[in-house]
Amino acid sequence: MRGFGAGFALLCAGCSGWQSAIDPAGPESRNLQHLLWLFFGVSAAVWVLVMLVLAVALMRRAAPSTAPLRPGSRGERGSAIAVSAAVAATAIVLVGLTVGSYRATSALGARGDEPLMVRLRGYQWWWEVTYLDPLPERVFVTANELHIPVGRAVTVDLVAADVIHSFWLPNLAGKQDLVPGRDNRISFTADRPGIYRGQCAEFCGLQHAHMSFFVIAEPPADFERWRSTQLQPAVAPMDTEQEAGQQLVTGKACAACHAVRGTGAVGTLAPDLTHVASRTYLAAGLLPMTRGSLAAWVADPQTIKPGNNMPAVPLSSDKLRSISAYLASLK
Ligand code: CUA
Fold it and tell me: What is the pLDDT of residues 198-224, one digit of tens each?
């Protein structure tokens, strides 16, 4: 009995967490959770009913008779009625579930007034995040992490840079594909603060499993503070080591793909590094953001995430140290 209790507790523990469709943190995901339980409840009831009928049929089996079959007998009429009733019940259940599903998913497109607009572009294998604004000077780019204010609707435009990816953020929203050449959109609202994990849910190549992202839902004041920091250009180097790192990062190799706002690095093929150290993870959820992770990544990105587009650039240990010092300062 104790084993059962422990097993049940473990099962329930698996339901909550930062990436769970049955631990909703907003109205859209709650709506989907209701749909999920509706399907689960109806399917479970149908299964129990079918098993009961099967058991009754097996127990009440008549003894084999030698008499010839007579068409139109009472037993046959009874079966015809039972089969018709079962077909009608199936049709009603299916129509009911279809209507429930339609209502739940059509509510997902609904947007609140003045939603926060974000554009998410899926790359193999990371996410470019652009905060849109009618004022061009309030637009900025970051990667793999979205900060959102609690209580305000967020609309995410989903675009793909290369192949099909899929945005899946179970605690807050459903799932929506990012398809090259087609603009998709998903809206959601967080009603409690927290860090929620999302993941690419469409196989998109070698590192598909390492294409996660994080949504940090925070009180509006904290969000505004974060946004005003992100709008700033990169901080200037504080010492000679960081200065040497800046020279290397904004020189040829890194700047061809990466941008560091406020410097000469303006590449757009890879994640924006202006505030890279302010993010929680590096390489789309693969490594926690520390100076050590930054150094390891720059030293050998192909061992950490084989197949990604970042080449290993041969660097002396001194250069690697200055690069990691500079990157870690970009809060
Ligand atoms: Cu992107 Cu899987």
Answer: 999 999 999 999 999 999 999 999 999
Angle 147-152-157 from CA coordinates, rounded to 5°:
65
Point out the ligand 1 atom lying closest to the alpha carbon of residue 204.
Answer: 2
Q: How confident is the model at residue 197 (pLDDT cuts 50, 70, 90)?
A: very high
**Would you kindly state where each structural domain of the chain is located, as residue ranges?**
116-231, 240-329
Per-residue pLDDT at 149: 96
Lowest mean pLDDT among 28-32, 78-82, 212-216, 276-280: 78-82
Cβ-proximal residues to 83 (8 Å cutoff; 6+ apart), any chain: none
SS3 content of the chain, % helix, strand, coil (to 5): 45, 20, 35
Q: What is the residue with the minimal CA distance to atom 1 of ligand 1? A: 165
Ligand 1 touching residue 121 (CB < 6 A): no
In tens, the pLDDT along 222-276 reads: 999 999 999 999 999 999 999 999 999 998 789 999 999 999 899 989 999 999 9
Across 206-233, b (16+ Cβ under 10 Å) vs e yields: ebbebbbbbbbbbeeeebeebbeebbee
Closest CA to 258 of 199, 305, 326, 191: 326
Residues 116-231: name the CATH superfamily. Cupredoxins -  blue copper proteins (2.60.40.420)
Task: Give the fold, CATH level 3, of 240-329.
Answer: Immunoglobulin-like (2.60.40)
How far apart are the C-alpha atoms of 108 and 197, rounded to whole Å?
19
CB 284 less than 6 A from any atom of ligand 1: no
Instruction: Tell me, using a 6 A CB cutoff, whether residue 175 lines ligand 1.
Output: no
| Kind plus residue range of the DSSP H or E element containing 140 | strand 140-143
pTM: 0.84
